[in-house]
Amino acid sequence: DSGVTQTPKHLITATGQRVTLRCSPRSGDLSVYWYQQSLDQGLQFLIQYYNGEERAKGNILERFSAQQFPDLHSELNLSSLELGDSALYFCASSVGTGGWTEAFFGQGTRLTVV
Amino acid sequence: KNQVEQSPQSLIILEGKNCTLQCNYTVSPFSNLRWYKQDTGRGPVSLTIMTFSENTKSNGRYTATLDADTKQSSLHITASQLSDSASYICVVSQDDYKLSFGAGTTVTVRA
Question: Using beta carbons and an 8 Å cutoff, which residues of A are at the interface with B?
Fold first, then answer.
């Protein structure tokens, strides 16, 4: 158990809908990262928050947004869902930011868009 | 073009045999290189982390090597076990926050 909690574990929704994925980082970790892993694809970095502020953006679509709350949990909002958004969404957390910090991954949320 | 390329894409080995996975990267600047193991449907778990000055690092039956000059790394699995069946992901960290992920090598160990 990495200490990073993601909910829900599975989510099935229809095209055009909006969903929210939740991530609780490890105790003491200030950074939260979101990644998308499509079927047979590698992990794609979406966005990073550090202590409540957006720190870095990767290949995140405009239909997607995220935030980190004062208690450091984070939510990833996916709207106007398309079939191609079906994927595993991982959250990772680390103590700080910077190349040396170890990132611990949650178990992921499997999103299926039908 | 992905800045971290892994090969082979997949491989099958018999239990007890050894195998080596390759990672070539073009990421610059370079802070450290990590190997993660990802079981199907689960989050990646760190195996090793190396700086540019380290040539080799071991974690049990896993040994990672790094040649920072040629920008190549390898992960060697010794005496493979069925539980080694997983995807192995090479991750290169730059001097800031950014992690660049390879697509992974899927290893299947058969009895």
Answer: 2, 4, 31, 33, 35, 41-45, 48, 50, 55-56, 88, 90, 92, 97-100, 102-108, 110
